[in-house]
Protein backbone atom coordinates (compact mmCIF):
# COMPACT_ATOMS: atom_id res chain seq x y z
CA UNK A 1 0.00 0.00 0.00
CA UNK A 2 1.20 3.51 -0.79
CA UNK A 3 2.72 5.77 1.87
CA UNK A 4 0.41 8.57 2.99
CA UNK A 5 1.59 11.87 4.43
CA UNK A 6 -0.34 12.89 7.54
CA UNK A 7 -0.21 16.62 6.73
CA UNK A 8 -1.97 18.15 3.73
CA UNK A 9 0.13 19.80 1.04
CA UNK A 10 0.16 23.58 1.62
CA UNK A 11 0.93 26.60 -0.55
CA UNK A 12 2.46 29.97 0.44
CA UNK A 13 -0.94 31.67 0.51
CA UNK A 14 -1.97 29.47 3.43
CA UNK A 15 0.65 30.99 5.74
CA UNK A 16 1.18 34.30 7.48
CA UNK A 17 4.12 35.68 9.43
CA UNK A 18 3.45 36.73 13.01
CA UNK A 19 5.26 39.99 13.87
CA UNK A 20 8.01 39.92 16.49
CA UNK A 21 9.82 42.53 18.57
CA UNK A 22 11.61 45.15 16.46
CA UNK A 23 14.38 47.21 18.05
CA UNK A 24 15.10 50.79 17.04
CA UNK A 25 18.10 49.51 15.04
CA UNK A 26 15.89 47.27 12.95
CA UNK A 27 15.09 49.51 9.98
CA UNK A 28 14.87 48.58 6.26
CA UNK A 29 18.06 50.49 5.42
CA UNK A 30 19.98 48.23 7.81
CA UNK A 31 18.73 44.97 6.29
CA UNK A 32 21.21 42.83 4.37
CA UNK A 33 19.80 40.34 1.84
CA UNK A 34 23.15 38.70 1.16
CA UNK A 35 22.74 34.93 0.91
CA UNK A 36 24.84 31.92 -0.17
CA UNK A 37 24.39 30.57 -3.69
CA UNK A 38 26.60 27.48 -3.35
CA UNK A 39 27.58 25.10 -0.58
CA UNK A 40 30.27 25.77 1.97
CA UNK A 41 31.78 23.94 4.91
CA UNK A 42 31.22 24.93 8.53
CA UNK A 43 34.03 27.20 9.68
CA UNK A 44 34.69 28.68 6.23
CA UNK A 45 34.36 32.44 6.17
CA UNK A 46 32.38 32.73 2.92
CA UNK A 47 30.81 30.54 0.23
CA UNK A 48 32.58 30.80 -3.12
CA UNK A 49 29.57 32.68 -4.51
CA UNK A 50 27.02 34.67 -2.53
CA UNK A 51 24.13 36.69 -3.92
CA UNK A 52 23.50 40.24 -2.78
CA UNK A 53 19.75 39.73 -3.23
CA UNK A 54 17.96 36.36 -2.95
CA UNK A 55 16.76 36.28 -6.56
CA UNK A 56 17.75 34.26 -9.62
CA UNK A 57 15.98 34.15 -12.98
CA UNK A 58 14.64 30.87 -14.30
CA UNK A 59 16.33 28.68 -16.90
CA UNK A 60 13.72 29.50 -19.54
CA UNK A 61 13.69 30.67 -23.16
CA UNK A 62 11.17 33.37 -22.28
CA UNK A 63 13.13 34.68 -19.30
CA UNK A 64 16.91 34.36 -19.15
CA UNK A 65 19.12 35.61 -21.95
CA UNK A 66 22.22 37.83 -21.79
CA UNK A 67 20.18 41.05 -21.49
CA UNK A 68 18.31 39.73 -18.46
CA UNK A 69 21.57 38.45 -16.97
CA UNK A 70 23.24 41.86 -17.10
CA UNK A 71 20.19 43.63 -15.66
CA UNK A 72 19.79 41.18 -12.77
CA UNK A 73 23.52 41.07 -11.94
CA UNK A 74 23.41 44.86 -11.79
CA UNK A 75 20.87 44.56 -8.97
CA UNK A 76 22.79 41.84 -7.12
CA UNK A 77 21.16 38.62 -8.36
CA UNK A 78 22.12 36.11 -11.03
CA UNK A 79 20.51 34.68 -14.18
CA UNK A 80 20.84 31.16 -15.48
CA UNK A 81 20.98 31.36 -19.28
CA UNK A 82 18.52 28.92 -20.78
CA UNK A 83 19.95 25.62 -22.02
CA UNK A 84 17.27 24.68 -24.56
CA UNK A 85 19.46 25.94 -27.40
CA UNK A 86 22.68 24.74 -28.95
CA UNK A 87 25.75 24.70 -26.70
CA UNK A 88 27.35 27.24 -29.05
CA UNK A 89 24.41 29.65 -28.79
CA UNK A 90 24.23 29.35 -25.01
CA UNK A 91 27.98 29.86 -24.69
CA UNK A 92 27.70 32.98 -26.87
CA UNK A 93 25.13 34.44 -24.44
CA UNK A 94 27.37 33.65 -21.48
CA UNK A 95 30.30 35.26 -23.26
CA UNK A 96 28.24 38.37 -24.00
CA UNK A 97 27.54 38.82 -20.28
CA UNK A 98 31.16 38.32 -19.30
CA UNK A 99 32.34 40.69 -22.04
CA UNK A 100 29.87 43.35 -20.97
CA UNK A 101 31.92 45.93 -19.11
CA UNK A 102 29.93 48.03 -16.67
CA UNK A 103 30.04 51.56 -18.01
CA UNK A 104 31.53 50.49 -21.37
CA UNK A 105 28.88 50.49 -24.09
CA UNK A 106 29.16 48.89 -27.54
CA UNK A 107 27.59 51.37 -29.94
CA UNK A 108 24.59 50.18 -31.94
CA UNK A 109 24.10 53.58 -33.63
CA UNK A 110 26.97 53.97 -36.07
CA UNK A 111 26.92 56.15 -39.15
CA UNK A 112 29.21 56.59 -42.18
CA UNK A 113 30.61 59.95 -43.44
CA UNK A 114 28.73 59.57 -46.72
CA UNK A 115 25.37 59.15 -45.00
CA UNK A 116 22.97 62.09 -44.86
CA UNK A 117 21.32 64.13 -42.15
CA UNK A 118 18.03 62.43 -43.05
CA UNK A 119 19.63 59.07 -42.29
CA UNK A 120 20.95 60.41 -38.97
CA UNK A 121 17.43 61.46 -38.00
CA UNK A 122 16.02 58.09 -39.05
CA UNK A 123 18.66 56.22 -37.04
CA UNK A 124 17.96 58.35 -33.98
CA UNK A 125 14.25 57.59 -34.26
CA UNK A 126 14.95 53.87 -34.61
CA UNK A 127 17.38 53.52 -31.67
CA UNK A 128 16.56 56.52 -29.49
CA UNK A 129 20.28 57.38 -29.35
CA UNK A 130 21.45 60.87 -30.22
CA UNK A 131 25.18 60.07 -29.98
CA UNK A 132 26.43 58.35 -33.15
CA UNK A 133 30.05 57.41 -33.80
CA UNK A 134 31.11 58.01 -37.39
CA UNK A 135 33.02 54.95 -38.58
CA UNK A 136 34.32 53.54 -41.84
CA UNK A 137 31.30 52.11 -43.63
CA UNK A 138 29.15 52.90 -40.61
CA UNK A 139 30.11 49.52 -39.21
CA UNK A 140 30.50 48.69 -35.52
CA UNK A 141 34.10 48.07 -34.50
CA UNK A 142 35.60 49.75 -37.57
CA UNK A 143 37.92 52.78 -37.68
CA UNK A 144 36.59 55.80 -35.79
CA UNK A 145 36.42 58.93 -37.97
CA UNK A 146 34.33 61.29 -35.88
CA UNK A 147 31.11 61.63 -33.93
CA UNK A 148 27.67 63.16 -34.37
CA UNK A 149 25.56 64.42 -31.49
CA UNK A 150 22.44 66.57 -31.34
CA UNK A 151 24.70 69.62 -30.94
CA UNK A 152 26.20 69.10 -34.41
CA UNK A 153 23.09 69.84 -36.45
CA UNK A 154 19.82 71.74 -36.54
CA UNK A 155 17.13 70.16 -38.64
CA UNK A 156 15.34 73.46 -39.26
CA UNK A 157 18.45 75.11 -40.75
CA UNK A 158 20.13 72.28 -42.62
CA UNK A 159 19.28 70.30 -45.74
CA UNK A 160 18.32 66.66 -45.11
CA UNK A 161 20.69 65.77 -47.98
CA UNK A 162 23.74 67.22 -46.20
CA UNK A 163 26.48 64.64 -45.76
CA UNK A 164 27.56 63.60 -42.28
CA UNK A 165 31.16 64.50 -43.16
CA UNK A 166 30.07 68.15 -43.45
CA UNK A 167 28.74 68.58 -39.92
CA UNK A 168 30.28 65.83 -37.77
CA UNK A 169 32.90 66.51 -35.13
CA UNK A 170 36.08 65.04 -36.70
CA UNK A 171 38.40 62.70 -34.85
CA UNK A 172 41.09 65.41 -34.77
CA UNK A 173 38.85 67.49 -32.49
CA UNK A 174 37.91 64.59 -30.20
CA UNK A 175 39.34 63.12 -27.01
CA UNK A 176 39.66 59.33 -27.16
CA UNK A 177 41.22 56.74 -24.84
CA UNK A 178 43.14 53.49 -25.45
CA UNK A 179 41.70 50.00 -25.03
CA UNK A 180 43.26 49.30 -21.62
CA UNK A 181 41.59 52.33 -20.00
CA UNK A 182 39.79 51.46 -16.77
CA UNK A 183 36.37 52.83 -15.92
CA UNK A 184 37.84 55.03 -13.19
CA UNK A 185 40.39 56.55 -15.56
CA UNK A 186 37.73 56.97 -18.26
CA UNK A 187 35.51 58.89 -15.86
CA UNK A 188 38.44 61.07 -14.82
CA UNK A 189 39.10 61.92 -18.48
CA UNK A 190 35.42 62.75 -18.99
CA UNK A 191 35.32 65.10 -16.01
CA UNK A 192 38.70 66.71 -16.70
CA UNK A 193 37.77 67.47 -20.32
CA UNK A 194 34.09 68.26 -19.68
CA UNK A 195 32.96 65.54 -22.08
CA UNK A 196 29.62 63.81 -22.42
CA UNK A 197 31.08 60.82 -24.28
CA UNK A 198 34.52 59.20 -24.37
CA UNK A 199 35.26 56.72 -27.21
CA UNK A 200 37.59 53.81 -26.41
CA UNK A 201 39.67 52.67 -29.41
CA UNK A 202 42.16 49.87 -30.07
CA UNK A 203 45.74 50.27 -31.31
CA UNK A 204 44.52 50.60 -34.91
CA UNK A 205 41.95 53.28 -34.10
CA UNK A 206 38.95 50.97 -34.32
CA UNK A 207 36.04 51.83 -32.04
CA UNK A 208 35.59 49.43 -29.13
CA UNK A 209 33.30 51.17 -26.61
CA UNK A 210 31.72 54.42 -25.58
CA UNK A 211 31.80 55.65 -21.98
CA UNK A 212 29.09 58.18 -21.11
CA UNK A 213 29.15 60.80 -18.39
CA UNK A 214 25.64 59.83 -17.31
CA UNK A 215 26.71 56.22 -16.71
CA UNK A 216 29.07 57.28 -13.92
CA UNK A 217 26.19 58.14 -11.61
CA UNK A 218 24.27 55.05 -12.77
CA UNK A 219 27.20 52.85 -11.81
CA UNK A 220 27.38 54.48 -8.38
CA UNK A 221 23.66 53.84 -7.90
CA UNK A 222 24.18 50.06 -8.05
CA UNK A 223 26.29 49.17 -5.00
CA UNK A 224 24.95 45.59 -4.95
CA UNK A 225 26.26 44.63 -8.40
CA UNK A 226 27.24 40.95 -8.52
CA UNK A 227 30.77 40.94 -9.95
CA UNK A 228 33.54 38.36 -10.22
CA UNK A 229 37.18 38.96 -9.21
CA UNK A 230 37.80 40.64 -12.56
CA UNK A 231 34.88 43.07 -12.05
CA UNK A 232 32.76 41.32 -14.67
CA UNK A 233 29.09 40.52 -14.18
CA UNK A 234 28.46 37.02 -12.85
CA UNK A 235 26.23 34.68 -14.83
CA UNK A 236 24.94 31.12 -14.55
CA UNK A 237 23.98 28.64 -17.25
CA UNK A 238 21.54 25.76 -17.53
CA UNK A 239 22.62 22.27 -18.56
CA UNK A 240 20.77 18.99 -19.14
CA UNK A 241 21.44 15.33 -18.45
CA UNK A 242 22.02 14.41 -22.09
CA UNK A 243 24.72 16.52 -23.75
CA UNK A 244 26.66 17.72 -20.70
CA UNK A 245 29.97 16.32 -21.98
CA UNK A 246 29.69 18.65 -24.99
CA UNK A 247 27.92 21.59 -23.37
CA UNK A 248 29.73 22.03 -20.05
CA UNK A 249 33.25 22.64 -21.50
CA UNK A 250 31.90 25.30 -23.87
CA UNK A 251 30.03 27.10 -21.09
CA UNK A 252 33.06 27.09 -18.83
CA UNK A 253 35.31 28.33 -21.62
CA UNK A 254 32.83 31.17 -22.18
CA UNK A 255 33.15 32.13 -18.52
CA UNK A 256 30.04 30.73 -16.79
CA UNK A 257 30.41 31.20 -13.03
CA UNK A 258 27.96 28.48 -11.99
CA UNK A 259 25.87 25.80 -13.70
CA UNK A 260 22.48 24.29 -12.91
CA UNK A 261 20.88 21.08 -14.15
CA UNK A 262 17.54 22.09 -15.63
CA UNK A 263 15.04 19.33 -14.96
CA UNK A 264 11.47 18.95 -13.80
CA UNK A 265 12.46 16.09 -11.48
CA UNK A 266 15.87 15.73 -9.85
CA UNK A 267 15.56 12.53 -7.81
CA UNK A 268 17.05 10.45 -10.64
CA UNK A 269 20.18 8.59 -11.66
CA UNK A 270 20.45 10.90 -14.67
CA UNK A 271 21.27 13.84 -12.43
CA UNK A 272 23.66 11.74 -10.36
CA UNK A 273 25.47 10.65 -13.53
CA UNK A 274 25.74 14.28 -14.67
CA UNK A 275 27.13 15.43 -11.33
CA UNK A 276 29.56 12.50 -11.22
CA UNK A 277 30.89 13.33 -14.69
CA UNK A 278 31.45 16.97 -13.74
CA UNK A 279 33.28 15.96 -10.54
CA UNK A 280 35.43 13.46 -12.44
CA UNK A 281 36.38 16.07 -15.04
CA UNK A 282 36.70 19.19 -12.90
CA UNK A 283 36.63 18.16 -9.24
CA UNK A 284 35.05 20.81 -7.04
CA UNK A 285 36.25 23.67 -9.24
CA UNK A 286 32.94 23.76 -11.11
CA UNK A 287 29.88 24.73 -9.10
CA UNK A 288 26.60 23.14 -10.21
CA UNK A 289 23.10 23.12 -8.77
CA UNK A 290 20.59 20.31 -9.18
CA UNK A 291 16.88 19.57 -8.77
CA UNK A 292 14.01 19.75 -8.61
CA UNK A 293 12.92 17.81 -5.51
CA UNK A 294 10.03 18.11 -3.06
CA UNK A 295 11.05 16.09 -0.01
CA UNK A 296 13.95 15.31 2.28
CA UNK A 297 14.82 12.08 0.50
CA UNK A 298 15.28 13.93 -2.79
CA UNK A 299 17.47 16.53 -1.09
CA UNK A 300 19.65 13.88 0.54
CA UNK A 301 20.09 12.06 -2.78
CA UNK A 302 21.34 15.15 -4.61
CA UNK A 303 23.44 16.31 -1.65
CA UNK A 304 25.26 12.97 -1.60
CA UNK A 305 25.63 13.15 -5.39
CA UNK A 306 27.58 16.41 -5.04
CA UNK A 307 25.14 19.24 -5.82
CA UNK A 308 26.27 22.74 -4.82
CA UNK A 309 22.69 23.95 -4.33
CA UNK A 310 19.35 22.19 -4.61
CA UNK A 311 16.12 23.44 -6.16
CA UNK A 312 12.74 22.72 -4.64
CA UNK A 313 9.44 22.62 -6.51
CA UNK A 314 7.47 20.41 -8.89
CA UNK A 315 4.33 21.64 -10.61
CA UNK A 316 4.05 24.99 -8.82
CA UNK A 317 5.09 27.28 -11.67
CA UNK A 318 2.42 29.44 -13.26
CA UNK A 319 2.98 27.87 -16.68
CA UNK A 320 3.54 24.32 -15.39
CA UNK A 321 0.83 21.67 -15.76
CA UNK A 322 2.86 18.70 -14.51
CA UNK A 323 0.45 18.09 -11.64
CA UNK A 324 -2.51 18.07 -14.00
CA UNK A 325 -0.82 15.86 -16.56
CA UNK A 326 0.97 13.37 -14.30
CA UNK A 327 -0.51 13.80 -10.85
CA UNK A 328 2.87 14.35 -9.17
CA UNK A 329 4.20 17.26 -7.15
CA UNK A 330 3.67 18.85 -3.78
CA UNK A 331 2.44 22.17 -2.42
CA UNK A 332 5.43 24.52 -2.57
CA UNK A 333 5.33 25.61 1.07
CA UNK A 334 5.16 22.05 2.42
CA UNK A 335 7.88 20.87 0.04
CA UNK A 336 10.16 23.75 1.00
CA UNK A 337 9.72 23.24 4.75
CA UNK A 338 10.43 19.51 4.43
CA UNK A 339 13.56 19.99 2.31
CA UNK A 340 14.96 22.79 4.49
CA UNK A 341 14.58 20.63 7.59
CA UNK A 342 16.60 17.93 5.85
CA UNK A 343 19.15 20.55 4.76
CA UNK A 344 19.63 21.56 8.41
CA UNK A 345 19.98 17.92 9.50
CA UNK A 346 22.53 17.35 6.75
CA UNK A 347 24.48 20.40 7.93
CA UNK A 348 24.55 19.11 11.51
CA UNK A 349 25.73 15.68 10.38
CA UNK A 350 28.34 16.69 7.81
CA UNK A 351 29.27 20.30 8.49
CA UNK A 352 28.38 21.10 4.86
CA UNK A 353 25.68 23.71 4.24
CA UNK A 354 23.89 23.28 0.91
CA UNK A 355 21.71 26.27 -0.05
CA UNK A 356 18.10 25.62 -1.01
CA UNK A 357 16.46 27.42 -3.93
CA UNK A 358 12.67 27.77 -3.93
CA UNK A 359 11.58 27.37 -7.55
CA UNK A 360 7.92 28.01 -8.37
CA UNK A 361 4.77 28.94 -6.49
CA UNK A 362 5.68 32.61 -5.97
CA UNK A 363 2.54 34.55 -6.89
CA UNK A 364 2.85 37.72 -4.79
CA UNK A 365 5.85 39.66 -3.51
CA UNK A 366 5.25 38.58 0.08
CA UNK A 367 5.59 34.93 -0.94
CA UNK A 368 9.31 35.60 -1.33
CA UNK A 369 9.50 36.62 2.33
CA UNK A 370 7.50 33.57 3.38
CA UNK A 371 9.86 31.30 1.41
CA UNK A 372 12.88 32.85 3.14
CA UNK A 373 11.25 32.33 6.54
CA UNK A 374 10.62 28.68 5.67
CA UNK A 375 14.32 28.17 5.05
CA UNK A 376 14.97 29.03 1.40
CA UNK A 377 18.26 30.77 0.72
CA UNK A 378 17.08 32.28 -2.56
CA UNK A 379 14.32 32.08 -5.19
CA UNK A 380 14.29 31.11 -8.83
CA UNK A 381 11.63 33.18 -10.60
CA UNK A 382 10.16 32.86 -14.09
CA UNK A 383 6.89 34.75 -14.41
CA UNK A 384 8.20 37.52 -12.17
CA UNK A 385 11.07 38.36 -14.56
CA UNK A 386 9.19 37.55 -17.77
CA UNK A 387 7.13 40.74 -17.26
CA UNK A 388 10.07 43.11 -17.63
CA UNK A 389 11.64 45.01 -20.52
CA UNK A 390 14.78 42.92 -20.21
CA UNK A 391 13.14 39.54 -20.85
CA UNK A 392 13.72 38.22 -24.40
CA UNK A 393 10.06 38.01 -25.42
CA UNK A 394 7.84 40.32 -27.43
CA UNK A 395 5.68 43.00 -25.87
CA UNK A 396 2.23 42.76 -27.41
CA UNK A 397 -1.10 44.56 -27.09
CA UNK A 398 -3.91 42.26 -25.97
CA UNK A 399 -7.34 43.89 -25.74
CA UNK A 400 -5.80 47.29 -25.03
CA UNK A 401 -3.31 46.04 -22.41
CA UNK A 402 0.41 45.57 -22.92
CA UNK A 403 1.54 42.02 -22.21
CA UNK A 404 4.72 39.96 -22.53
CA UNK A 405 4.80 36.48 -24.02
CA UNK A 406 5.65 33.71 -21.56
CA UNK A 407 5.84 29.98 -22.18
CA UNK A 408 6.94 26.94 -20.23
CA UNK A 409 9.93 24.79 -21.07
CA UNK A 410 7.55 21.82 -21.18
CA UNK A 411 5.33 23.46 -23.79
CA UNK A 412 5.24 22.54 -27.47
CA UNK A 413 6.67 25.99 -28.24
CA UNK A 414 9.84 25.38 -26.20
CA UNK A 415 10.21 21.74 -27.25
CA UNK A 416 12.68 21.30 -24.39
CA UNK A 417 12.38 17.52 -24.18
CA UNK A 418 15.69 17.26 -22.28
CA UNK A 419 14.20 18.98 -19.23
CA UNK A 420 11.70 16.13 -18.91
CA UNK A 421 14.14 13.42 -19.88
CA UNK A 422 13.47 9.96 -18.43
CA UNK A 423 15.95 8.18 -20.64
CA UNK A 424 13.58 7.62 -23.55
CA UNK A 425 13.08 9.06 -27.01
CA UNK A 426 14.25 12.57 -27.82
CA UNK A 427 10.79 14.10 -28.00
CA UNK A 428 8.00 15.57 -25.89
CA UNK A 429 5.36 12.83 -25.65
CA UNK A 430 2.92 15.25 -24.00
CA UNK A 431 3.06 18.83 -22.78
CA UNK A 432 3.88 19.81 -19.20
CA UNK A 433 3.78 23.56 -19.81
CA UNK A 434 1.60 26.18 -21.48
CA UNK A 435 2.08 29.14 -23.83
CA UNK A 436 0.72 32.34 -22.28
CA UNK A 437 0.95 36.08 -21.63
CA UNK A 438 1.85 38.02 -18.47
CA UNK A 439 1.08 41.70 -17.77
CA UNK A 440 3.92 43.96 -18.91
CA UNK A 441 5.52 45.66 -15.89
CA UNK A 442 8.31 47.90 -17.26
CA UNK A 443 12.00 47.89 -16.29
CA UNK A 444 13.50 45.27 -13.98
CA UNK A 445 15.26 47.75 -11.71
CA UNK A 446 12.12 49.58 -10.61
CA UNK A 447 10.13 46.42 -9.93
CA UNK A 448 12.88 44.58 -8.08
CA UNK A 449 13.41 47.66 -5.92
CA UNK A 450 9.76 47.67 -4.81
CA UNK A 451 9.70 43.92 -4.20
CA UNK A 452 12.81 43.97 -2.05
CA UNK A 453 11.57 47.01 -0.13
CA UNK A 454 8.63 44.87 0.96
CA UNK A 455 10.94 42.00 1.94
CA UNK A 456 13.15 44.29 4.03
CA UNK A 457 10.15 45.91 5.72
CA UNK A 458 8.64 42.53 6.63
CA UNK A 459 11.94 41.28 8.03
CA UNK A 460 12.06 44.35 10.26
CA UNK A 461 8.52 43.60 11.44
CA UNK A 462 9.90 40.25 12.59
CA UNK A 463 12.93 41.84 14.29
CA UNK A 464 15.60 40.66 11.81
CA UNK A 465 18.14 42.44 9.62
CA UNK A 466 19.78 39.39 7.97
CA UNK A 467 18.26 36.34 6.31
CA UNK A 468 19.77 33.85 8.82
CA UNK A 469 18.45 35.94 11.72
CA UNK A 470 15.06 36.13 10.03
CA UNK A 471 14.92 32.36 9.68
CA UNK A 472 15.68 31.97 13.38
CA UNK A 473 13.17 34.55 14.59
CA UNK A 474 10.31 34.11 12.11
CA UNK A 475 7.02 32.73 13.42
CA UNK A 476 4.60 31.25 10.90
CA UNK A 477 0.93 30.42 11.26
CA UNK A 478 -1.44 28.52 9.01
CA UNK A 479 -4.56 30.44 8.07
CA UNK A 480 -8.09 29.31 7.40
CA UNK A 481 -9.96 29.91 4.16
CA UNK A 482 -11.99 32.60 5.89
CA UNK A 483 -8.96 34.49 7.16
CA UNK A 484 -7.42 34.40 3.68
CA UNK A 485 -10.42 36.44 2.51
CA UNK A 486 -10.00 38.75 5.50
CA UNK A 487 -6.38 39.38 4.50
CA UNK A 488 -7.30 41.31 1.37
CA UNK A 489 -9.58 44.23 0.69
CA UNK A 490 -13.14 43.14 1.48
CA UNK A 491 -16.60 44.54 2.12
CA UNK A 492 -15.77 47.73 0.23
CA UNK A 493 -16.18 48.95 -3.34
CA UNK A 494 -12.69 49.38 -4.78
CA UNK A 495 -11.89 52.50 -6.79
CA UNK A 496 -8.94 50.76 -8.44
CA UNK A 497 -9.53 47.12 -9.31
CA UNK A 498 -6.13 46.63 -10.96
CA UNK A 499 -4.21 46.03 -7.72
CA UNK A 500 -2.74 42.53 -7.47
CA UNK A 501 -4.39 41.33 -10.67
CA UNK A 502 -2.64 38.13 -11.76
CA UNK A 503 -0.13 38.15 -8.94
CA UNK A 504 2.74 40.47 -8.01
CA UNK A 505 1.39 43.68 -6.54
CA UNK A 506 0.98 46.51 -9.03
CA UNK A 507 4.12 48.62 -8.66
Please describe the structure with a list of short key phrases separated by commas or semicolons.
23 strands, single chain, 507 residues, eight-stranded parallel β-barrel, alpha/beta
Contiguous uncertain segments of 5+ residues: none
Mean pLDDT comes to 89
Output the radius of gyration: 25 Å
Tell me the strand percentage band: 15-25%
Category by helix and strand content? alpha/beta
Strands ordered across the widest β-sheet: 5-6-13-14-15-16-18-19
Helix content: 25-40%
The global form is: globular
Distance between the termini: 50 Å
Helix tally equals: 16
Number of strands: 23
The biggest beta sheet is recorded as:
8 strands, parallel, barrel
List the helices and strands and how they pair.
Blueprint: E1 15-17, E2 35-36, E3 40-41, E4 50-51, E5 55-57, H1 66-75, E6 78-81, H2 87-99, H3 117-127, E7 132-135, E8 144-148, H4 164-167, E9 169-170, E10 177-178, H5 183-192, E11 197-201, E12 207-212, H6 213-220, E13 236-239, H7 244-254, E14 258-261, H8 269-282, E15 288-293, H9 296-305, E16 310-312, H10 322-326, H11 332-350, E17 352-353, E18 356-359, H12 365-373, E19 378-381, H13 383-386, E20 395-398, E21 401-407, E22 435-439, H14 444-461, H15 467-473, E23 476-478, H16 481-486
Parallel strand pairs: 5-6, 5-19, 6-13, 10-11, 13-14, 14-15, 15-16, 16-18, 18-19
Antiparallel strand pairs: 1-23, 2-4, 3-17, 7-8, 8-9, 11-12, 20-21, 21-22
Amino acid sequence: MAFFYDEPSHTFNEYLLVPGYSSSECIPEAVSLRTPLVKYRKGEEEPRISLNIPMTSAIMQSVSNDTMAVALATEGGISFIYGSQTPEAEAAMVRAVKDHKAGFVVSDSNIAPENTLAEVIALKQATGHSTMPVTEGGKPGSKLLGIVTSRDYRVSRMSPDMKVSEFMTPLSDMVVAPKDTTLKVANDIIWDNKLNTLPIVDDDGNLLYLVFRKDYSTHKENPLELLDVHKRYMVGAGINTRDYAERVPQLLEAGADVLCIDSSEGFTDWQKFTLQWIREQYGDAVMVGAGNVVDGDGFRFLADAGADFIKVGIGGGSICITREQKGIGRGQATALIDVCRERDRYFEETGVYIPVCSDGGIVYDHHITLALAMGADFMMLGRYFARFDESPTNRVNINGNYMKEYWGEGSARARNWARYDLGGDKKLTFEEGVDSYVPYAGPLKDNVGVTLAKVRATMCNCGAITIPEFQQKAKLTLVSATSIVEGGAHDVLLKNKSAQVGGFDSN
